[in-house]
């Protein structure tokens, strides 16, 4: 469940853009039972050719007593007609006394390098990642930054994610249009349902993966990034075995 929440929180950094390079500050909050459990802050620079994101993520509220997590996350790459193409992705965080670092290199949507510290523990039976699995993929920061002709076509996408360990797809389907009103943006948005499809890089039969495969209570809401042709999340709801996790943009300006 954490991998989906992290991808959504991370991707919320890219909400606005202009033809000339500008920097934006964003804040996002994750809640469970109405109580904050995580918070993220991002500085995003984007123009018509390049993007760069630098962010921090930390646990918040009562979650700090059980799972004190703090880290940094960043991505950079090109902006083209087909969408955002990451070149480099890095995440470095600490959970309690455990530290983890992941670096991924990309070229034209293909993974060229990956490193994990500590190394990934492969439980058996393990579904290995093939070279074909690592083509036309995005990192957790850019996977939900969608290029589309219109708001109505946002939910017709199949998103291919690689987080340094696991390859999975997110299949989007339209739920309906809505109106978003939050600091920095008021206007139309589109809500999509999410279907989680594991591909490789995980232990077959793992309970968390099986739960996500069957979960039909996951939604994400997208809003336009000004006139760039990109759309990015402004809200999400994810049903879990203990309650509904909500991600909302507290600020994106």
Task: Explain briefly what this protein structure is.
The chain is mostly beta strands and about 250 residues long. The chain has two helices and 16 strands.
Radius of gyration: 17 Å
Let me know the largest β-sheet.
14 strands, antiparallel
Please write the string of helix (H) and strand (E) elements. HEEEEEEEEEEEEEHEEE
Average pLDDT works out at: 87
| Percentage of residues assigned to helices | under 10%
Number of helices: 2
Structural class: mainly beta
Q: Which segments are poorly predicted (pLDDT under 50) over 5 or more consecutive residues? A: 15-19
Account of the protein in words:
With 253 residues, the chain is mainly β. It has helices spanning 2-11, 207-214, and strands at 22-32, 35-46, 50-59, 69-80, 83-95, 98-107, 110-117, 126-127, 146-147, 158-162, 167-182, 185-200, 202-203, 218-224, 230-239, 244-252. The strands form 2 sheets. Strands 1, 2, 3, 4, 5, 6, 7, 9, 10, 11, 12, 14, 15 and 16 form a 14-stranded antiparallel beta sheet that branches. A two-stranded antiparallel sheet has the order 8-13. The protein is globular. Residues 15-19 have low confidence and may be disordered. β1 (22-32) and β2 (35-46) form a beta hairpin.
